């Protein structure tokens, strides 16, 4: 990931653990392609303060959609490593593998 430019090295007081998630039941567990890279941000999430705001009424959402000319969608299945992080938040998004790298 460093070579591909999807991550950068950084010094941080935070570090969330890397986990490998089994993603393909058709592949045997000894096949490396049966796993995907993920970061366990549960501890970071537990101390993160979320902004509070009211959700719009579904009727208002539907009314707004009726008057749009352009709509878009996101492909969450192919979107790995596509999330841009605000430079001020990079310190909190640090992750570390078991060997400390």
UniProtKB/TrEMBL annotation:
Protein origin, superkingdom: Eukaryota
InterPro entries per the UniProt record, alphabetical: DNA/RNA_pol_sf, Rev_trsase/Diguanyl_cyclase, RNA-dir_DNA_polymerase
Record-level GO BP terms: DNA biosynthetic process
Name used for this protein in its record: Retrovirus-related Pol polyprotein from transposon 17.6
Source organism of this protein record: Trichonephila clavipes (Golden silk orbweaver)
